[in-house]
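Sample entry (220 residues):
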Amino acid sequence: MIEDIQTAIPLGFFLSFVIGPVFFVLLETSATKGFRAALSFDIGVIIADIVFLLIAYFSSFQLLENLSNQPGLFVFGGMILLVYGIVIFVRKETKKKPGLKIKKGTYLGLLIKGFLLNFINIGVLAFWLGMMVIVGPSLDNDANRMAIFFGTVISVYFFTDLIKILLAKQLKRYLTEERIVLLKKGLGIILMVCGIVLITKGFLPKDRFNIQEGLERISE
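Predicted structure, serialized as tokens:
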């Protein structure tokens, strides 16, 4: 269990810095409405991620059972990440701000807005599905281990978001348009590399390339 938690921590931290509409609205809400408003918004985002995780788990459960430790599983998961990375890398940026504007309202309203803004992004579901397919076999498809792993990811994600909320004004100052573009391109490249690595895994003998060992090295 400890090893699963250690492996999940870097992933949760990384996910918190995935650049997208949610990232900027969270910073904007914190800077203009305060900590509690941003916290309410972020809780809605986290709930949407949990819903996506549940959808990904139950939709991929049969696939995990049938293809566990089989090459096709890694090729499938790798293709999801590769395509997602390509989309992020080639997507052209616009100078428009996110369409969702935070107005005065109740904390419940902000929570609902956070949920909807994250939930309408189908790319988030694709990402969680890819992670479920990739990580599942490494956790022996054990429901308890997967709950601990992804629970840790979400917890670290949320904790890092709290730090971002507190540092919102400083982060907004340094996140220029050029740096944002570079961050997105870098994220796309990382996802493409991960996808290629996983696809390669599908064509190599099992003992030549171990995903779990690689994740454990990252966490050290």
